[in-house]
Amino acid sequence: MTTQMISREMFLAGKWVKRERIIEVRDPQDNSIIHTVPAASAEDMLQCIEEAKEGAKIAANLPMHKRMEIINKAANYIEEHHEQFARTISREGSKTIREATKEVKRCIQTLRISAEETRRIHGETIPFDQVPEGENRIGYYERFPIGIIGAITPFNDPLNLVAHKVGPAIASGNAIIVKPSTVTPLSALLLAEAFSVAGLPPKILSVLTGYGNEIGDILVKHPAVRMISFTGGLQAGEEIARKAGLKKLSLELGSNSPVIVLEDADINQAVESTVSGAFWAAGQNCLGVQRVYIHESIIKAFQEKFVARTKQYRIGDKQSMLTDMGPLITEKEAIRVEKMVDEAIQKGAVILTGGKRNGAFYSPTVLTNVPKDCMISKEEIFGPVVLLYPFNELETAIQQSNAVDYGLQAGIFTNDVRKAFKAIAKMNVGGIMINDSSDFRIDAMPFGGVKKSGLGREGIKFAIDEMTELKVVCFHLAYNE
């Protein structure tokens, strides 16, 4: 597929600007150049932060009803241009057109919820007379905007994950600077376009396209930026935590998600859910199913059905409605996945299906007998590979599920509510889905993990909590007798 190369401007404090230095945006399917975007400089970022200082004041003084109106208008714009948004997501990233269309729908929901949650930013009264010293006092607490938020977003959900930062930031009266992934910047720029058309005042939102080593560190370190919201890899997240200094951090750093399938589970439901959870967006999904623990009494039947369903996956042109899975984001990423699988095979793992690479494409792969010391057992693979393990006791499956440094989400398939609650109590994760895979999420729920899966929670209401500070107000009343 060929597309005329178009130069796209970046959004600096409400103005569309070009730069001589550019970044090529390529379609991972055939490596063709589809757009170019400016390569922002350190000076651009510093200017952006200065403009955002004024933007934060404008945002804080924007009435709630106006914030709601703007966010809803942006959602309307995306709805009216949903085909353009979906095509952009699919062209610049790994998602098939069907997957991209679903992301656009979720983005619209994310913004609608952000508008609705705006009206719910409130505090509570405090009974100060609960102590003798508090007599004749009355007061409350309220929430106020934190100021400037820096958002660094990944390639795998290039529209909705940006909306999860921009929507709550604007809802809560903050200014926000977005630095999107260099490989998928176009969707973030389209989101900026939606807010610009919706009437968002200048200086509140910026989307700067550039390299992390040139503009990312400035955004992270600058003292005027009061919060960093980052979604990405563990190593980058740890670097941000070291560099950020005294400011708020919201870090979503991935996982190695487990799913447990008990002997009383609906096997067909479990297979369909876990196959989808493993291979959605070519496995480049922080919630993606990576390890499945199956009770030994049903593992043969489960394994046969799982492999058969995996073999049905249609790999190919992302723009075709018939395609189930496209390429990884780059050939380099596909080679990385290939090396992890090869290491596991050398140590004794067995391939049930898949294990083949063609450029940036890597076939849906199912492994068994994977040793615990393999990289693929311990780390996030972020590719279309899933590991199947047998177990005989639920306690063992829970222990093995917890035996990694990550804890984002997990799933368990069972009709025994007692066993479900045992897993809920003992699995060390930020979310557990009963009779769903680890991949299930709605945009309104709190989202985040424990251990090395990150800090803080996203999900609109909970992101707003992270993006605001509390202020206590107390009146000392001098009553006249």
Task: Describe the protein.
It comes from Heyndrickxia ginsengihumi. Keywords: Oxidoreductase. InterPro entries: Ald_DH/histidinol_DH, Ald_DH_C, Ald_DH_N, Aldehyde_DH_dom, ALDH-related_metabolic_enz. It is an enzyme of class 1 (oxidoreductase). This protein has 481 residues and is of the alpha/beta class. It has two domains: 6-253 and 455-470, 3-Layer(aba) Sandwich (Aldehyde Dehydrogenase, Chain A, domain 1); 257-442, Aldehyde Dehydrogenase, Chain A, domain 2. The chain has 15 helices and 25 strands. The radius of gyration is 24 Å and the shape is globular.
Top CATH class of the largest domain: Alpha Beta
Strand order of the largest sheet: 15-18-19-14-13-21-22
Q: Tell me what the CATH architecture of the largest domain is.
A: 3-Layer(aba) Sandwich
Distance separating the two termini: 85 Å
Work out the number of β strands.
Answer: 25
Beta-strand portion reads: 15-25%
Q: Quick check: average pLDDT? A: 96
CATH topology of the largest domain: Aldehyde Dehydrogenase, Chain A, domain 1
Output the structural class.
alpha/beta
What ranges have pLDDT less than 50 throughout 5 or more consecutive residues?
none
Largest sheet: 7 strands, mixed
Shape: globular
What's the CATH superfamily of the largest domain, by name?
Aldehyde Dehydrogenase, Chain A, domain 1
- Gyration radius from CA atoms, angstroms: 24 Å
Count up the helices: 15
Helix content estimate? 25-40%
Give the total of domains. 2
Q: Which helices and strands occur, and which strands form pairs?
A:
Blueprint: E1 6-7, E2 10-12, E3 15-17, E4 22-27, E5 32-38, H1 42-60, H2 64-80, H3 82-92, H4 97-118, E6 124-126, E7 137-145, E8 148-152, H5 160-171, E9 175-179, H6 186-197, E10 205-207, H7 212-221, E11 225-231, H8 234-243, E12 248-252, E13 257-261, H9 267-279, E14 289-295, H10 299-311, H11 331-346, E15 350-353, E16 357-358, E17 361-362, E18 365-368, H12 375-378, E19 385-391, H13 394-402, E20 406-407, E21 409-413, H14 417-426, E22 431-434, E23 450-451, E24 454-455, H15 460-466, E25 468-476
Parallel strand pairs: 1-5, 8-9, 8-11, 9-10, 11-12, 13-14, 13-21, 14-19, 18-19, 21-22
Antiparallel strand pairs: 2-3, 4-5, 6-7, 7-25, 12-24, 15-18, 16-17, 20-23
Helix pairs in contact: 1-7, 2-4, 2-6, 3-4, 4-5, 5-15, 9-10
